[in-house]
Amino acid sequence: MATQNFLIELGTEELPPTALRTLAEAFASQFDAQLKDADLSHQGITWYASPRRLALKVAALSDRQPDKVVEKRGPAVSAAFDADGNPTKAAMGWARGNGIDVSEAERLKTDKGEWLLYRQHVPGQAIDALLPVLADNALSKLPIPKPMRWGDKDTQFIRPVKTLVMLYGDTLIEGTILGVASDRVIRGHRFMGESSLTLDHADQYPERLEREGKVMADYEKRKALIINDAKAAAAAVGGMAELDEDLVEEVTSLVEWPVVLTASFEDKFLKVPSEALVYTMKGDQKYFPVYDANGELLPKFIFVSNIESKDPAQVISGNEKVVRPRLADAEFFFDTDRKRPLIDRLPELDSAVFQKQLGTIKDKTDRITALAGQIAERIGADKAHTERAGQLAKCDLMTSMVFEFTETQGVMGMHYARHDGEPEAVALALNEQYWPRFAGDNLPTTPVSSALAMADKMDTIVGIFGIGQAPKGSDPFALRRAALGVLRIIVENGYQLDLVDLIRDAKAQYDDRLTHKEVEADVLDFMLGRFRAWYQDMGYSVDIIQAVLARRPTKPADFDSRVKAVSHFRSLEEAEALAAANKRVGNILAKYDGELPSSVDASLLQEDAEKALADVVAEKVAAVKPLFADSDYQGALTELAQLRTPVDTFFDNVMVMADDPALKANRLAMLHLIREQFLNVADISVLQK
């Protein structure tokens, strides 16, 4: 079977930059799945993507499907012929459907009987007709939330399609996809190189496109060039470029021929908090800011042009002219906002709605101020500073700077609070109230910040649940992220807080605004559910998490200790046998409908094995009691692991469900006592092998 490299390139209008990588990777994945379903072998798929194209190159693709034999089983022989040996209607209908006579059928003999059988030789199809269909199917499965139509066509895609190339080696695969017929022509850069090129062979891609068309279709190559050149450009001006992964990805998706350049802005703008300057450089203009060795912003920025200009100074000047008005706006807003103390804006929050049923942002401010104060007392934070931070928490939302540059909320509050002479802990909390903002983000650095951050998040979670808008698919209020943030703050700081208390206190701030009666129970379930995803991400197996969740510990720090203890216990040699024993005991106790004694009666112990087990149990119960009191779950489970041998011996030699009711109840009481010790940590019976 012959093989050749196959190329497909879809030329489009400018694709959404934030979706480019996702589209390209999905195209490769879906096309690979289509080839596998069609039984077409190959040696790997490489994807390419630029603002105006998605492309795949399939290495050593087979030129046709392999031949195969399809077996079609018919009716049982006993049902295929009547008493005289003539074919029945069932047999004739089956044979007719396969295009044969009953006499041509083979016989299939098995242990369960004999059936008619037809083996059909199916020759493999050549790829000429297959590839357009497979590619079309793959494109139809791309993650495109809002496909569009263009011109007078009925086809839909994320952007209008202009060209289609499908080459198998040097052979053009004819076909139409998304309303465009395949050809050998690809488009070059809009302003440089050849505007179009005709490919003679799939192997000419992407080298000819880059050399003659001035388009670097290799996404990873473009990205690496941008990173390396940006680092070099920053070093040339004595600094380091801030190359955020998301921004680098977006810039890579915006250009076909990256040219990295360095520009400047006036030193006077550096008196504005760097966060505002960086926000406008990165968010609005897609520039990379430059910092010195001390982390101070330099009056430089790096940008990526999509053209290799003969006069780069003009390109640099143009970008400097574009960014200057935005920096001047930031300077003006900063100077204007500082003319009023931050606290003066507190009454203005009454004019901004947090949520229609939950009131204004001023209402939310009052609630989180009270709740943060309560949390502060529990974790040893300065209550006065915490409550002051609560009052100021949302005031920067009413400033000109935050109104214009929304992502600076919090950080501008911090700067304005410092200008107003507020305590540093208060100022810092205004910024850190939103931490952690995403998975793996930094946590608040002080108890005051932590109390405010938890209060803000708990107020939102309880409020939205309290009006019956718990997240299902979408999560517009980011409640999952907020819940995980609260858990992380508690666990990673070792705060001995109980979710039940936090939820109750948050609910109390709402008075009668909340309409959902089961809000406390639902929020608790929701937050406990966040543990599963979090600990799975940390590498803990689902059964370990389920073992702890079965006991519903509501103190996050306690939950964390239990998970780690169970994880350690599972690594012990005795764990598997004790998990099985716990499951067995649980099943036995579930079927017993009598009342168990409150303690084990030593006078009823008859067998040596049960006497030995009773002695060890008494010893271990005494040993683990102080360990449980100190929440030393790992130490307790390590002690209890020593029960394995006497428990196994007990089950091997003692009839638990004895005929004598007293003996049976006493033995069950001992097993119940053993299980209760483990349940002080988790339900280890759910652990898998």
From TrEMBL:
Catalysed reactions, semicolon-separated: tRNA(Gly) + glycine + ATP = glycyl-tRNA(Gly) + AMP + diphosphate
DALR anticodon binding domain location: 584-687
GO terms of molecular function: glycine-tRNA ligase activity
Compartments, as annotated in UniProt: Cytoplasm
Record keywords, A-Z: Aminoacyl-tRNA synthetase, ATP-binding, Cytoplasm, Ligase, Nucleotide-binding, Protein biosynthesis
Source domain of life: Bacteria
Enzyme Commission (EC) number: 6.1.1.14
SUPFAM superfamilies listed in its UniProt record: HD-domain/PDEase-like (SSF109604)
Pfam families, per the entry: DALR_1, tRNA_synt_2f
Keyword check for Coiled coil: no
Top-level EC class: ligase
Subunit relationships: Tetramer of two alpha and two beta subunits.
NCBIfam families: glyS
PANTHER family: GLYCINE--TRNA LIGASE, CHLOROPLASTIC_MITOCHONDRIAL 2, GLYCYL-TRNA SYNTHETASE
Family: Belongs to the class-II aminoacyl-tRNA synthetase family.
Name of the protein: Glycine--tRNA ligase beta subunit
Native source organism of the sequence: Salinivibrio proteolyticus
Gene name as annotated: glyS
